[in-house]
Sequence to fold (461 residues):
Amino acid sequence: MKAKFTTKQITLFTTLLGLATLGLTSPVAAQKSTASYTETKPQFEKRTKWWREARFGMFIHWGIYAVPADSSRGMAEWYMNNFQMQVREYEKFAPNFNPASFDAKEWVETAKNAGMKYIVITSKHHDGFDMFDSKVSDYTITKSTPFQRDPLKELADECQKQGIRLCFYHSIMDWHHPDYLPRRPWETKVRPAAGVDFTRYIVYLKAQLKELVTKYRPAVMWFDGEWENTWTHEMGADLYRYVRSLDPHILVNNRVDKGRSGMAGMNVSAEFMGDFGTPEQEVPAQGFKDGKLWETCMTLNDTWGYARNDHNWKSQSVLIRHLADIAGKGGNFLLNVGPTNLGEFTMETKNRLEAMGRWMESNGKAIYGTSATPFAKLSFSGTCTQKGNRLYVFVYDWGKSDSVMLEGLNNKVRSAKVLATKERVAVQVSGSSLTLQKPSVTDVDATVVELTLDATPRVQP
Ligand code: FHN
Fold:
């Protein structure tokens, strides 16, 4: 029997019905958020304090792309695009997505035990599939899969219990919504753009953000998929103000706007909106100028979404040194996990996070709440962080001389000890050069020496 309504009509009806329940009936009103806000530096510092001190978070890319779980043609979460699928074909993964093993308590404990202080999970990736219960969409985990539960609600409750901040990744680009443009080249005939209204898509986007922010109270909205030419700086600035108007405490990354250069890297500059920059798959050569906040996001292997075929896992040493290097430059590290379609973390994932947790157990004091190194460069393989009158020296390699030298420090050293073992470290001072002797027990990933100084570190430029 021929369906009475087309899918597009049903989507539109669902959206409008949902909008009405969310008080977003007038597209124009939802268009330009009236929120204008100014923020002083002290206010910004207060709002971002927990994030700056946290330093280390878990990224989670989880969606129906975990069903094919295939990165043979590119990132696994891009499966629909990589295999040039029509929407109707890709939708068939939803009824096969039933993460029966999903356990919010276990996920949050794993993040916490790794030393992570916040979790950023995909509420919607580019495929447009909603991993939460939305009134303005039927393309959701609660309505279109046998699972029918709301994992983001379960995670929000569990994060509340365990003292971890929950944050959401939400894609501006949406390959499913009938009003999103541009269409993919292979679907123009099947899904013509005639009659499409991008303004209506923005109303839908805002309606879902209102649901997410008011119902789940995320600490950060982490936008992505901002690079297509249908999304403008004006739309980004408006969306930033809109989200902040929903919750004045929330943080928003720079990808709400066009502040990121290209697909990787970023250039937070004054005219772009966003509370922090988002370099991707890289540790920037230096920290960001004039105190701009930033966070490197990175995969454990080569793909964000889970892929059965991706075995290129980074070692624990590489991961621990990335964390140290990033902290030494004053940034945050958002390390990604791609859970399976059953709702499980892979063994490779768990092993690496457990190793990082063991290291953080002994050395977290040199990461949390610290700021970037006072040294322009070091003569050894390692990095530094600082907090008050303490300098944390991370040594990756003690070299042939079984010692490392810090040059240009104009402080008196009150004490020097290995943070993890409390073993005293012998220090030779010559003018403003300090030589630290290799302790009897070192950490193959990174040994941290805590120097207690007479005052905050003063380094010759
Ligand atoms: O296209 C996405 C990609 O799938 C992934 O989500 C990364 C994570 O930051 N962001 C985009 C690529 O820059």
About this structure: Residues 198-216 form the longest helix (19 residues). The first strand starts at residue 56 and ends at 60. The pocket of FHN is lined by residues 75, 77-78, 224, 263, 280, 297, 304 (CB under 6 Å).
